Amino acid sequence: MTTAEEYLRDIPAVHRSATNTIAARLSLWAKDLASELQPVVFLPGQNDHPVFDDAARVFDDAVEQLLLADAPRPNEVPLLFVGYHAMNRFTRKRQTLGFLVTDQRIVIQDKFAGVFGRELPNYRMLPVTSVDPVASSHALISSVGSAFDWSDMVKLIGADSAEGHSPEFRLTQLLEDAVTSVVQLSQALGLAVAGEPGEEETENSTAAELVPRLAELGIRSDVLLADDPRLAKMLKKFGPKIGLGGGETIAFASLDKTFAGVYGIVVTDTAVRSCDLMEEPVVSLRSAIDPASIKLDDKATAIITEPGVAHVLVSHLSADVKNGIVTALRELIAGDIKP
Fold first, then answer.
1. Which helix (H) or strand (E) segment is 16 a member of?
2. Residues paired with 114 in a beta bridge
3. Cα 336 to chain centroid, rounded
4. Are 252 and 267 in contact (CB under 8 A)?
């Protein structure tokens, strides 16, 4: 029995019956997909995959690496994996990359583990209580798709379609169709009721703690947490430079290492500290910051915490990640989320 099978064994029978209905519908949907899309679509217990004999294992590995590697939600059932496995050149192990759709979330992994360990997947809640599942699913997949690194997955499905649609567009549309089906069936089967598994979480601060909130914002793998060995290595010289005290507890950081040194921002329990390359450090005491005043500067290169006080951001971050860091910082200082 696989780890995934052991996990599913504890899901209540009534809930499993409903999700089995959704899985069966997805199986019929998958059979009608264009042949070039089949290599990246996997279903639970699949023994008739048109391309791979080990499709069931691919799905189970995705469940173990994307769902069970972190904390699944109560009674969460995996339904569909869109992605692939590849050999990680650092760990020499097969690693799952792609999207795992459950009855409650879409879990996303697009970065290989590096020399300092694996970056945990991000996730977004499915809009299972939405009054317009089609529009809400489109908005969700447009958001996660724009932040995903498609460069390797699109190679698996070939060139543009006969209609001129790019591989990235076709994969995004595939995910949108699948999520829409899951949401609509969840509502029809009564799974999307308040307080039950599958309840939609709003885009406001739905998580009470920092780490789950970072994942909701889609930036968990883009920031460094206190126990990350990469952070410890960067802070050996950078910590003293920004005046980081031994009594401070780090909430999260966004740093980058260049030939000229380390730069970026560190948020602790008492202060926000940052330093740009070849510049003097900047420090804001959290007690002096009005959460409502936190914002990006006009060029989106720094976070303004107080009038005239700017904390540099890592330059290669996307706009979504920068906005996510601003949101997390604002909510953390306001006390809406806890470290």
1. helix 13-31
2. 117
3. 21
4. yes
Residue pLDDT, tens place only, 319-336: 888 999 999 999 999 998
**How many other β-carbons are positioned within 10 Å of the β-carbon of residue 206?**
14
What is the Cα gyration radius of the chain? 21
Buried b (16+ CB within 10 A) or exposed e, 243-282: ebeeebebbbbbbeeeeeebbbbbbbeebbbbbbeeeebb
Residue with tokens 């409502």: 292
CB-based contact 84:37 (threshold 8 Å)? no
DSSP for 219-245, please give it. -GGGSB-TT-HHHHHHHHHHHHHTT--
Residue whose tokens read 């602790």? 268
Query: Alpha-carbon dihedral of residues 135, 139, 142, 143, nearest 10 degrees?
Result: -170
Prediction pTM value: 0.61
Asked whether the predicted pLDDT for residue 201 surpasses 80, the reply is no
Distances (CA, A) of 166 to 34, 161, 180: 14, 7, 21
Helix H segments across 53-149? 55-62, 133-147
